[in-house]
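Data availability (excerpt). The following record was deposited with the supplementary files.
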Amino acid sequence: MGLTAAVSLALDIATKFWAERRFEGARGLERRIDVWADHFGFALAKNPGGAWGILGNESPALRISFFIAISLVAVVFIVSLYRKTEPDQKALMWGLPLVLGGALGNLFDRVRYGHVIDFIEVKLGTYRWPTFNVADIAIVVGVGLMAIDMFTPRKRKPAPESAKATT
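Predicted structure:
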């Protein structure tokens, strides 16, 4: 668990560091990099809210306290759930650390800046997806793996012999 979470956290912090250094104070066309014109690129955004800017207009004290508390609860939940995983729950064993690394990456930003650094932009036709970061990717992939685990049928374990004897 630790290695996967640490790698996703490190990638998130490193890419946000790159985005800040690359775009902070840049002017004109330098403020963005178009990788695939009108579809995919990079530009610095500072998101004070949650996903899709939720609570972004609330007071900083309320907003930051709320998101830090939610992140800490999520970390405790993820670690406790991971401890209960079974060896056959491969998707969950990968998904939980990805969510943990992503949650820690965004928590790091909230504690350090009071907002989250986003820099990845995706546009499909006329729809522009809200700007996001590597932590968000880790969280989405991790939650997807958790969903796969939820819908994966499991073999029932046979009852222990001691339980059979009492019936």
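Summary of structural features: The mean pLDDT is 87.
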